């Protein structure tokens, strides 16, 4: 045979290359090398197939000559990566009047007709693109041949060479089609990706003894645990047939007929083949096989399709069995896969009544009754009733309600709206920006155009992983964070070389972070501690204080509460670093926004409603993001930071008793000038000295800066003179660098991303060109001024694999993200470290 | 005599240095060199005086020995710069019992007693800091001497050496006092500024013939025009006496007694001295002189104090008389001085009833009746009644009312609030951030704590130059933009080497800009054109359009209006460049904010109130600054920019007919990514092609980008690939670089500036360290990508001398500022160019 690189018989020694013949060809060669019963197969190279599409035929006579006369042949596609697709297989090439007559004689006319008709159809419709209706059942082969001749003005070709030529040409052209190209490019294929083709000898699907086709795999696609799964159908061909009800089990099974019952030896051979393949191909494979009068043939093997949890389990099991290394296991699981193991998921197999779609803002799914207010959510929760909090948008006042809700649905806002950020922090599923929703808070109804009106108490399901909102309850898949998940994370911890901390605002968050195992708390936003109703009242008294004395009194009442928070946090973190951000939001976030709230507040403070309303109006801002918050508040209302510093230091003293000393980290938010840091540092130092003096206890602490204005990044050099660490708050930094409020961006972000104005939403994927340059500038200048400055990213981007890659490359010490993103971050960090080891 | 550098007799050749002996010493030496009759004077150096303060005496015997026995001496301070201050003069040192007796014999006891008592008082109270009450009138010298001895336990010193020593010591110590130091540092003196002292022989102030003291100057302090002004008092000493009613005129004057009537020769000598001094000292000086029995002595000369208009006139006259060069004249006038000539000023001499203070947000002053709404302002204006618009804060809806008002007063906002920026643009006086004000819009009252309630119609005066608000009408000084002002600006145009354009939004603004002479329009904010009531209605129809068709229809109605604006602008600017910024603000700025407005709008659009309210709410943003505006609106609502581009091009065709072709500049606002520019450029290019085709006329235009996000500055390289010019919008760039909304910054900016957190308000003075770095980065990258890119600053900073210096140093092509800031900008630019010429 003309064994050129363009047309190679698949033998153990043939020079088959994945990047010339495709993945399937290479896989078949591996099976051949394992001496498994693979039928005679020939691989056509990418170049050959490219030539075919341009009309250059290979030596077809030679190709046909490799096979025996009367052989039936199949052609399958073999792209470089399995998920780049390719045209469907064509079977039974070589069928003609003579073969049909022979079959009729041996197996009866019906069998011969069925096989011949199936090929005529496939050849006419799939290969030559004739009208499908012409060949629709009921029809006989003779009529089909007549229709073919009418259409083509030529009789149906009887020689295998002509048939095979047309099949190969059609498949080569199909690969070049526009939609096929777009589809594979979406999966990462290059524009010039090639297609290989495999011509394989087929067994006749009918025979006197045990004859048929099947697939088998040795693990469960769902769980990843070892378990023989598969189907077999006697007297059939191809995968398609296996979905028929008549298909049988492989192993003996009480639910029905199984191949093993009749052919135990062949099934045992399959088991042995499976073991061999797993070990030598280092992967769980699904095997396509045939029996021809009792004789086993293995036609093909593909990677077992698998769920997220199956994926993790298979990778871990392969490593634990020594088939692959732990590093291999870590690189085989895509980081975001872990998200699906941490949250309940809507069962994709279950029935669905889609109500509307929004942005998949916080993963997981939950079913519950609709509530429209935070207090209704709390009340439902207290009765143990699952509920879905539905709001136009959420605000800090809603936090306790968000905590109580099983899921959150908002009409407005994007991936980084308040609702989305808080929900991800809390681990509560959230769909935001469901713009179709029409809410009537007065009537307490929810409508979607064209659908019935929903009332408080109606049951819906929110799927924060897909962005879907479903009517009624959906069937769910439960999370799976133990077992293989935990093992993989442990390995990731061993492999990674950048710190992963969690953002945790409350002891509850910190506890959650600890379950994932973190290197500390990278961002504790203290303001969230003030939304507890008792504290909120004191906060409001502080805001409404007439004079310094009253303000001081209110702050003194907050002090023990804050101290208590910090003691608990420090104890929970057992000496790991805890980075506490001083109070950040504008004061008006603590005041009610509606008439009822104002009246209640006036009553509580014993003040006239008009005064309360006036004060609230007075505190309103045009652009609160850019207003009186962060260090600006710290400087103009000094008591707040002093109280917080005292709470931190007193907690440090308490939590250090009899333990390793706690070294708290104190972070100043929204800095834009060095002098801000100096002023706060002086004040914090003074508080520390006072607490040391009062308690007679020594302690140390680290003061740092949250770099979230472009100016702070630019001036990081002089800022670092007073800051032991710089933590980049990439959310705000992105907002300011783009001049883009994340709360308002939802209105046009989808248009922008769709039109490619921004390649991606910069709140989701760190903008390396703009924000990234500021990060690098800031890091470089900070390090120049203070070589041992600790550098990190905190905020939403912290958990994104791309940002972790960026931070690692920039030599940052750690990233901090919400607890629920820690597993993804760890795996991504591990993969980066492994990839560097391989490259170096 | 010991003529050491520490103690120098002022002779023509003595090595007197301004930076060692002070300004007055140097000036006296110049008078001596002119052979004017200056009494014997000795200069003590800064080092000598520093030594005195530390207790090291110079050789006092030698010093006293320079003068004759029985001479009376004066000591005056001589700081390096005239306005750094210094302790007051001490006269008559040397008075004692013997001199008193001699005077009594020659001129009578009363004269002797008066002179002796005056010195004892001055020595006891000013020099030795004894209790003033002890020496209060009525008292005799004898009693005063007794009190002195009681207090000091020593008799009153009779020798001139002791007296002089104490005087010098006291003056040296006074210079080191804290308040004196703070005062001079506020005027720009360095911390270690020195004081020189001058000891001068005095004439006795009493004599038989014409004896007395006077001051004279040869120009009017107010107007700067030539005019002998001065006072003379016979038988008196020192400047203080000249304020007495008995003081006489210098030149013959019909209003009263004049020195010239008695001593024409001496007055002629003064005139000659004045001419000589003006020519040789190259400045208008005020001369202090005495006559001693008819003999003229010139004691001192200081720069004539002068008003802003006097300052300009004097500089221009000196240059026109050839005394100084034009460049000298340009450098002598501080740029901000010109502001006072462009606006009415409250007469500082007039009576004042201060109601409250705020931020001096837009210069000039006006008196009028209080109005609380824009419509009331328009109505008052239509009746020809001056009015003051008082608002909590202003919004774009108020613009027509602001136009109609004679001044604006707001409770909130800083130097760069909406009210302040618009007022400066309109040239309307404005006081913003008058936080003491309590407005009740419902009752239409204005209160300041502790003052009566003011109602609509009550008259107040707003002084936008000082930030003061006065009760009732104040006397005013009118602007003076002709004459010397115009001459100086013409010279500035010749001298400067950076372009000055004006921000002009309407033909009216452009006309104003042309009166100051500009190099074009650097920023035409097209949105202000839509606040005219007819246009506003169409705008709102556009915003409420149900579909593309309705929106298109509304835009088509706006097209001819916009075209008309541009035709007028282009014609007015006569071929000078006009840079038109495409629509920038969020759409909600065009919608009413209150119930009444919403009801009226619903009626006008024939829509239910609830729908209008819902749409308005739907358009609200959390941070409008960072929201759906600028190019984001241009991309998501494409019709707006297409309409504007068409209006610009059609106007170009019309305005170019029979004239030099107009080359419009089109600027895209709020860019943060290159792709935004590409998309808009494609659209604008297409509109240009269509208009060329429809009109059969060729024209060119320049498309550029307003760089106002930090990201646009960082990515200026790739942006410049598609932009012929980059104009830095430093207002927004400052807001985003600091993360600081100018509308909200008022709340803490004063605390920040007072505590030195920011050295200055970055909205007033360009922040060179942060924002400046982005400007330099952007300019460098833009130039690298496109060497001929035009670079400029537009916005509030454009008119600030410091920003002009920055822009010039960075090689920018022009700055653009509001028309009323053009004169200041021109003068500042001229001074920079001159200063470079001198240095190079």
Short descriptors:
8-stranded parallel barrel, alpha/beta, homodimer
Overview of this structure, please?
The structure is a homodimer of 840-residue chains. The first copy, chain A, has 840 residues and is an alpha/beta fold. Chain A is built from 33 helices and 30 strands. In chain A, the strands form six sheets. Chain A has an eight-stranded mixed sheet. An eight-stranded parallel barrel of chain A has the order 23-24-25-26-27-28-29-30, surrounded by seven helices.
Percent of sequence in beta strands of chain A: 15-25%
Largest β sheet strand count, sense and barrel closure of chain A: 8 strands, mixed
- Order of strands in the sheet with most strands of chain A: 11-21-20-13-14-15-16-12
Count all strands of chain A and give the number.
30
* Dominant shape of chain A: elongated
Radius of gyration of chain A: 33 Å
Q: Considering DSSP H and I runs of 4 or more, what fraction of the residues of chain A is helical?
A: 40-55%
Biggest interface pair, residues each?
A-B, 48 and 48 residues
């Amino acid at each position: 045979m003309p064994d050129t690189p363009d047309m190679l018989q698949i033998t153990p020694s043939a020079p088959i290359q994945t990047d010339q013949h495709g993945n399937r060809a290479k896989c078949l060669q591996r099976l051949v090398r394992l001496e498994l019963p693979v039928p005679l197969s020939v691989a056509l190279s990418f170049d050959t197939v490219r030539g075919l599409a341009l009309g250059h035929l290979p030596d077809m006579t030679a190709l046909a000559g490799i096979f025996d006369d009367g052989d039936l042949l199949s052609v399958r596609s073999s792209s470089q990566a399995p998920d780049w697709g390719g045209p469907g297989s064509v079977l039974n090439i070589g069928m003609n009047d003579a073969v049909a007559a022979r079959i009729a004689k041996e197996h009866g006319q019906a069998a011969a007709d069925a096989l011949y008709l199936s090929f005529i159809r496939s050849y006419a419709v799939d290969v030559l693109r004739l009208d499908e209706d012409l060949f629709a059942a009921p029809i006989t082969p003779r009529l089909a041949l007549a229709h073919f001749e009418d259409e083509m003005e030529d009789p149906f070709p009887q020689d295998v060479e002509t048939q095979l030529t047309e099949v190969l040409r059609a498949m080569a052209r199909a690969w070049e089609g526009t939609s096929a190209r777009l589809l594979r490019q979406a999966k990462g294929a290059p524009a010039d990706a090639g297609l290989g083709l495999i011509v394989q000898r087929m067994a006749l699907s009918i025979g006197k003894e045990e004859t048929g086709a099947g697939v088998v795999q040795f693990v469960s696609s769902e769980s990843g645990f070892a378990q023989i799964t598969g189907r077999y159908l006697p007297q059939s061909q191809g995968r398609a047939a296996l979905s028929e009800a008549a298909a049988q089990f492989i192993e003996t099974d009480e639910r029905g007929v199984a191949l093993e019952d009749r052919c135990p030896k062949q099934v045992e051979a399959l088991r042995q083949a499976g073991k061999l393949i797993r070990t030598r191909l280092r992967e769980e494979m699904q095997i396509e096989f045939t029996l021809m009068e009792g004789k086993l043939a293995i036609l093909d093997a593909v990677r077992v399709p698998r769920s997220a949890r199956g994926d993790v389990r298979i990778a871990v099991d392969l490593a634990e069995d020594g088939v692959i290394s732990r590093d291999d296991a870590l690189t085989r699981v895509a980081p975001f896969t872990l998200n699906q193991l941490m949250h309940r998921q809507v069962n994709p197999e279950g029935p669905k009544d889609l109500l509307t779609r929004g942005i998949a803002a916080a993963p997981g799914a939950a079913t519950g009754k609709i509530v429209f207010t935070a207090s209704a959510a709390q009340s439902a929760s207290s009765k143990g009733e699952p509920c879905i909090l539905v709001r136009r948008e959420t605000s800090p006042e809603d936090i306790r309600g968000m905590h109580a809700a099983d899921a959150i649905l908002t009409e407005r806002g994007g991936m980084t709206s308040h609702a989305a950020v808080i929900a991800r922090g809390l681990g509560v599923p959230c769909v935001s920006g469901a713009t179709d929703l029409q809410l009537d808070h007065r009537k307490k109804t929810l409508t979607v155009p064209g659908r019935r009106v929903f009332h408080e108490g109606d049951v819906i399901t929110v799927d924060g992983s897909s962005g879907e909102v479903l009517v009624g309850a959906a069937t769910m898949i439960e999370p799976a964070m133990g077992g293989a998940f935990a093992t993989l994370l442990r390995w990731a911890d061993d492999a990674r070389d950048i710190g992963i901390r969690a953002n945790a605002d409350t002891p509850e968050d910190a506890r959650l972070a600890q379950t994932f195992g973190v290197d500390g708390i990278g961002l504790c936003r203290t303001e969230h501690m003030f939304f507890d109703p008792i504290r909120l009242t004191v906060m409001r008294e502080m805001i409404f204080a007439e004079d310094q004395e009253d303000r001081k009194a209110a702050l003194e009442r907050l002090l023990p509460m804050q101290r208590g928070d910090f003691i608990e946090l420090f104890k929970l973190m057992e000496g790991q670093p805890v980075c506490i951000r001083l109070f950040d939001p504008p004061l008006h976030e603590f005041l009610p926004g509606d008439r009822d709230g104002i009246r209640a507040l006036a009553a509580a403070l014993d003040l006239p409603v008009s005064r309360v309303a006036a004060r609230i109006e007075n505190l309103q801002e045009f652009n609160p993001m850019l207003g009186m918050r962060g260090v600006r508040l710290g400087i103009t209302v000094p008591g707040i930071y002093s109280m917080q510093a005292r709470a931190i230091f007193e907690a440090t003293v308490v939590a250090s008793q009899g333990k390793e000393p706690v070294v708290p980290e104190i972070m100043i938010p929204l800095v834009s000038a060095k002098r801000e840091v100096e002023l706060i540092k002086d004040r914090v130092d003074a508080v520390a000295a006072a607490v040391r003096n009062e308690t007679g206890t020594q302690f140390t602490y680290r003061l740092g800066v949250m770099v979230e204005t472009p100016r702070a990044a630019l001036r990081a050099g002089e800022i670092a003179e007073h800051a032991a660490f710089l933590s980049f708050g990439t959310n705000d930094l992105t907002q300011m660098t783009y001049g883009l409020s994340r709360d308002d961006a939802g209105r046009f972000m989808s248009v922008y991303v769709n039109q490619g104005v921004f390649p991606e939403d910069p709140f989701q994927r760190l903008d390396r060109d703009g924000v990234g340059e500021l990060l690098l500038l800031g890091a470089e200048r900070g390090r120049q001024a203070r070589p041992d400055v600790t550098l990190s990213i905190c905020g939403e981007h912290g958990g994104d694999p791309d940002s972790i890659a960026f931070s690692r490359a920039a030599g940052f010490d750690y990233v901090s993200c919400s607890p629920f993103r820690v597993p993804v971050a760890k795996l991504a960090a591990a993969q980066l470290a492994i990839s560097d080891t391989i490259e170096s």
